[in-house]
Each structure stands twice: as C-alpha cells, then as structure tokens.
Amino acid sequence: MAAGLLSPRSLGVVAYAIVTTAMALFVFTGSGLVDTAAFVALLVSVHLATDAARIDGATRFVVLTLVLVVALPLVGVRNTFYLDVATQVGIYAVLALGLNIVVGFAGLLDLGFIAFFAVGAYLWAILSSAHGAGLLGPGFPLPPDAFFVAILVAVGIAAGFGILLGLPVLRLKGDYLAIVTLGFGEVIRVLANNLDKPVNITNGPQGITGIAQPLSGVAATLASPAVPGFKWQALVYYALVLALVGIAVTVNRRLDGSKIGRAWIAIREDEIAAQAMGIPLVRTKLVAFATGAAFAGTMGVVFAAKQTFVSPESFDFNQSIGVLAMIVFGGLGSIRGAMVGAAMVTILNLQILKALSAGLNHLRSTGFEVFGWSFANLPTQFEPSKYERLVFGVILIAMMLHRPRGLVPADRRTIRVDTSNETEREGAR
C-alpha cells in the first residue's frame, strides 16, 4: 500500500535513510574515517528528504524523524562527539541562513557578519556570569532559566546593531560595502578585546568564564545510571539547536516567498531597476541587515551557553569568512544550499581533516610501508588539519570554476501574470 502512495524516488529516500541509520548505529564507536563516512551518509538522508520539489511531505517527515530524532540521539549516547558535531552543524546552519538573507537574497556582501554573533554571545555571558554580577550589581547573574528571555532580547539588540551597520553603507555596494562591513566586524572584535578598562565590561582578551547553562535541570532529570558517563547536557543542546534550525528554515522559506523577499531579489539583480519599480531601497536593505543579524545574535546566545566561555578570538575575521564560504559552497540564495554548505564545511573542519591527520600520524608512528616507502619518512609538518584554510581555498576555487552557483543552486522562480480576464474583456468590447 505504501508503494502505491509514495513515488519511487520517495521510497528510495526512505530505504536509503533506513540503511544509513542501521550502518551508523552499527559502526559508531570512535572518530575515525569510517565513522565520519557513516555520519556524512546519515546527513545525506536529511538533504535528500528536504527536496520539497520531488519528495512528498510524508516521506520528509518519516526521514527527518528517523535521522534527527531517533538515529542521531542514539548515536550520541554511544559517542557524544558526534552529538556535539551535529550541534555545531546546527549552529553554523542558522548562521549561514542569516548571512544568506544578506548576501544571497539581497546581494549585500557582508564580511563582518560574525560581529552580530559576538553581540549575542557577550550579552548572555555578561548577564549570566559572576563577571556580570560584579559589573551590573544586585540581581545578577540571571538564573539559567532566563536564557530564553535573553534569546528574545538578543534578537532585538542584534537587529539594532544590524541597522547601525546598514545606515552608513546604504549608498555603497560591491567592494566598498565589503570593506566597510569588514571594518565593522573588526571594530566589534577590538572592542571586545579592549573593553576591560577603565570599566571592565568584556574582561578583555581573557574572556568571560562560568557562563550559566540553560535547561541544566532537564539534563539532571534525564541522567540515568543506565548510561554512565553520558553528557545529557549535550543532548539537551542538540534538541534546542534542532528546534532553532527548524524555526530558521521556516522563517527563511516565508521570507523567500514574501513581498520583502521578492524585493531583496530585485535589489540583488538590479538596484536601479528595483528603485524605478518603487521598491524603497533604504528600508529594504535595513530589513535585510537587521534580519540576518537577528539570526546571528540568537545563535550567539546559544554558543555562549554551550561553551560556558567566550573570548574575542572566537569572533575574528576568519569566522566571518568561514560562514561566507558555507553559503558560497552550498549556493547563494539557496536555503538548502546554506545548510549543506554549513554541514560540509563544519564536518570537514571538525572531523575529516582531523581524522586524516590522526590516520597519518598512526601510519607514521607504526612505520607502515607502501611499495617500499615508509610513512616514517613523512614530514611531521604534513598534517591536513594544519592546512584548513588552504583546503577551503582550493575547494572554493574549484567551485567557482566548475559549479559557480554552488552545490544546491537556488531555484529561479518565474512569476506569470494571468491576463485571461483582460483578454475576455477586450473580446467583449
């Protein structure tokens, strides 16, 4: 009966999800290349299921539930590392979706996007730590349950910073816009690094520690002797980030098909023509900056709570470039592309390169030989994890040469005007 209701492609996606889930649950024991391959294969199920044009809603629900709600938590019980990686993927996916609004939808090149991430992180760090208590006085630090209120406050504050960035750059575009936004990102980082005197606000380069973790009571309730040593807080953060990813995707889809979304795309394609058609450039650009910044501010609060420590080094220029690389790699203007880019870049950084380095070190230490050549002769400086930026650069060059629209290009919708009624009126005359 199910075969009659579902298309062959949908059945194939369900079968693939079941196979990769079984494979992941069977092989997940460490952080080697085999486990990494199984983890990537599992996430490919999510990518296939989110193809709304060719996959029906029932298949999408089954696959997403199987992979995200069942498989990954079970894998996380066996190896918390992969649950942390999935959480990091979710955090960067929301960041990529926010930057995709600014760069992909509106065509405004922003090289300082990580500054809004820093605003949200330092907001929760100051409000919920002992450092904030010394700075703000009685009533602080806030209890961990105030985390969700802080998220709402971070949305407003980060959006305000987005407007502050947008106001002076409204007449700029291209390289000039990129330079100004780069400067804004550096200003925020330098302020975080130096606002430790005369009033100690950010604690300077030492950063802020002891940040409160939300939902710690839920994690304590879930703790069970049946799974000794498992970090239930990691599962709580995974569920929280998963919910935020769902909200971010829904908001992006709504914006993409809305009036403001079409206005952003019109500005991206031809700013002069968009203005001639009556689109208010100032307001539309400011909304793009504010919306993207709100996404980053929200995840900044989550990042600070998860890490329990923030410092200026976490928000340098390379982080902005990393998020930009995600949306370029996945596809500018593509919601699925932004998520695919975030997943691939994060996994490449946290797993693949490190696993390759660990594998080479093992072969070097054991003196493994291939055709008479020993890996013991391999230079110690040759470790893929040390050449992360080089690898990203090579990947981006290859993408620009062979697939300039990204792995998952944005769909170009054609809007047709129904003129049948006008034709009938002309005939009646």
Layout of helices and strands:
Blueprint: H1 2-5, H2 8-27, H3 33-49, H4 57-78, H5 80-105, H6 114-128, H7 130-136, H8 147-166, H9 175-194, E1 208-209, H10 216-222, H11 232-256, H12 259-269, H13 271-276, H14 281-307, E2 309-310, H15 317-330, H16 335-366, E3 369-370, E4 373-374, H17 388-402, H18 420-428
Antiparallel strand pairs: 1-2, 3-4
Helix pairs in contact: 2-3, 2-4, 3-4, 3-16, 4-5, 5-11, 5-14, 5-15, 5-16, 6-7, 6-8, 6-9, 6-14, 8-14, 10-11, 12-14, 15-16
Q: What's the CATH first level of the largest domain?
A: Mainly Alpha
H/E series: HHHHHHHHHEHHHHHEHHEEHH
Fraction in beta strands: under 5%
Number of helices: 18
How much is the average pLDDT? 85
Q: Based on the coordinates given, report the CATH architecture of the largest domain.
A: Orthogonal Bundle
Return residue spans where pLDDT drops below 50 for at least 5 consecutive residues.
none
Biggest sheet, spatial arrangement of strands: 1-2
Rough shape?
A: globular
* Number of β-strand runs: 4
Class by SSE composition: mainly alpha
Oligomer: single chain
Distance between the termini: 55 Å
Q: Which radius of gyration do the C-alpha atoms yield?
A: 24 Å
For the largest beta-sheet, the strand count, sense and barrel status come to: 2 strands, antiparallel
Portion in helices? 55-70%
Number of domains: 2
Question: Can you describe this structure?
Answer:
The protein has 429 residues and is mostly helical. The chain has two domains: 1-78, no CATH class; 83-329, ABC transporter involved in vitamin B12 uptake, BtuC, CATH 1.10.3470. 69% of the residues lie in helices and 2% in strands. It has 18 helices and four strands. The protein has helices at residues 2-5, 8-27, 33-49, 57-78, 80-105, 114-128, 130-136, 147-166, 175-194, 216-222, 232-256, 259-269, 271-276, 281-307, 317-330, 335-366, 388-402, 420-428; strands at 208-209, 309-310, 369-370, 373-374. The strands form two sheets. It has a two-stranded antiparallel ribbon. A two-stranded antiparallel sheet has the order 3-4. A hairpin with a 2-residue loop joins strand 3 (369-370) and strand 4 (373-374). Helix 3 runs antiparallel to helix 16 (335-366) and helix 4 packs across helix 5 (80-105). It is globular. The termini are far apart. The relative contact order is 0.13. The mean pLDDT is 85.
